[in-house]
Amino acid sequence: MSANRKIGEVILDVQNISLSFGGVKALTDISFDVREHEVRAIIGPNGAGKSSMLNCINGVYQPQQGSITFRGQTFKHMNSRQVAEMGVARTFQNLALFKGMSALDNIMTGRNLKMKSSLLAQAFRNPFGWSSAEREELEQREFVERIIDFLEIQPFRKTPVGQLPYGLQKRVDLGRALAMEPQVLLLDEPMAGMNVEEKQDMSRFILDVNDEFGTTIVLIEHDMGVVMDISDRLVVLDYGKKIGDGTPDEVRNNEDVIRAYLGVEH
Questions:
Q1: 26-30, 175-179, 250-254, 259-263: least confident range
Q2: What are the residues whose beta carbons fall under 8 Å from the beta carbon of 157, sequence distance 6 or more?
Q3: Among 1-15, 69-83, 171-185, where is mean pLDDT lowest?
Q4: How far is it, in rounded angstroms, from Cα 99 to Cα 15?
Q5: 55: Cβ–Cβ under 8 A, 6 or more apart, which residues?
Q6: Contact 257, 250 (CB under 8 A)
Q7: Strand partners, 90
Q8: Position with higher pLDDT, 244 vs 193
Q9: How far does the chain reach from its first CA to its final CA, in angstroms?
């Protein structure tokens, strides 16, 4: 699926990241890079440190050692908002949607960083015509409607998210991240809990986001069939350490990876 994708220069460079919680080492000296327009997977057993790695990249955790360089700018300590403003969006393994709000309104929350009008200006309507805040909100809604069309959730745009099936909620979560117009999209187990058909749909949307929007994808996923099918390169973690890095074929034939994660064929 990824054979025709044009991969660019390094957009994200992770160098020597170590993260500890008290005496427990979550990550030890992890280094890898992500190239523009690629789908880069992070795989490994439960507890390998995959989500911790994403949390370091998007500013949720502050690593004790190492640095992360995004588009040539190196940072050691950034908060989540700063990272988002730089162009990195994130979905989470556990959905954090507003269950009582519609799919459209949930995706609209992803446009907050793009809104130039103040909250006060948005709250008051101009009785003599369209205010700048109202015009801006209309533009933002048009952008969100395009995402809704792209993700094929038009019939559910006004439905409270809590009433949607799990697979569609995951799609809304992806839409909210896309609303931020990210250069790099971090996906934490986007297919967890899905059936085969839902996984196929989500795989297609991830590849379409990558192809049509040119968005670079960093993906955590347990389904090895999916990972090997849609990824350009994989980095493999085990107990917080990197044990493999390369193309799907290289990782598939890596003895350390086979022993730790893929299992040895008998």
A1: 259-263
A2: 102, 103, 104, 145, 148
A3: 1-15
A4: 38
A5: 61
A6: no
A7: 186
A8: 244
A9: 30
| Backbone torsion region of residue 48, taken as left when φ is above 0, otherwise alpha when ψ lies between -120 and 50, otherwise beta | alpha
Q: Which amino acid is at 28?
A: T
Is the confidence at residue 145, as pLDDT, over 90? yes
Q: Which two tokens stand for residue 252?
A: 């598939």
Q: In terms of pLDDT, which residue wins out, 4 or 63?
A: 63
Asked if 235 and 35 count as a contact pair (C-beta separation under 8 A), the reply is no
